[in-house]
């Protein structure tokens, strides 16, 4: 069905849009009707350059025939198979291929894969595996989690509890026993840092403080995004993740990296684990796993954790957990085709080639009205604007509308503009994003 004709627009009354000011949106809707390569097409027929890879997920660009053909073939072959007590070869095949590029390489041992349907499900899965692991090794008192302020780990009750987004926490009840590290954003010391900020590794010692407060014997795992994305691109200070790893190991606490955004090439290495050379015990992924084409997530689990749960009676279910859509055959087909594209086109490391030019282009926005900080790493950028008194987020939102009307899709979170184009971007696309954004920032003055 095509909605490319504006007169064909359906009623806006029934669809309750997620994370959207529905009433505001429905008064002035913005619709995308098709996509190819680096561009969307809006319902009034305009090309819109995708500066955000959809929602940080379309890493190989849009409309990839290799993926859509694989999906179509799979739909015609095996549309669905029960995920419990039954197998289909594609899930094993996809897991094996993922194991070959697993975070940290063979030495890290993160090559056991649990499939989920989304990033939120990956997070809840990782948290549950952490608890089950601690129990399996006789550490059943370890039921607490440590998250981080300004962390985003999806919308499940586990994810919002370990996350540190105030709005989430105000409305919904939280898992008991969760505490938080401070976030690492420190504009006083690190404003306009390029790549990893110099200052703040000592903030990892918050974990030591929380161990002293709660007792190591109560803490199952600590979870962080190596680079926090959705809360405004917070890049970890040099040495921070290493220190977190060291403290967690010393106290028998599992370390979980949430790589739903950073996974699959966003930083210029296959995973943040590879980029930083820091190896956690579990890694959550989704988004780029299937190029966003079919919903899917995956948790990479270390052999240590996996094997500890494989020691009970043989007929027993080792982990009482799973989803109807775990390892969905169509999602696996999309994922396998996606990995093939990543490998054939070198996309898992392409952001490293673009990063220098990207960083220079984005940092050239310094000096524009209200720009108070810029952060870049890999093919990601966060541009923070000074809050307008009494209208937090309004400037960034106006820039978003202005850019969309002028043919570039950016993303805003509060007063921060986040950029993360598909990894197939060419320098000309980077120029266009920066040119449009510059004009928009001048106008929202
Ligand atoms: N974790 C992180 C780090 C994310 O960025 C996101 C989504 N932006 C999620 C979890 C949740 O993923 P999903 O929306 O697929 O549930």
UniProtKB/TrEMBL annotation:
PROSITE patterns noted in UniProt: AA_TRANSFER_CLASS_3
Named cofactor requirement(s): pyridoxal 5'-phosphate
Protein name in the entry: Aspartate aminotransferase family protein
UniProt keyword annotations, A-Z: Aminotransferase, Pyridoxal phosphate, Transferase
CDD domains, alphabetized: OAT_like
One GO MF term: transaminase activity
Pfam families tied to this protein: Aminotran_3
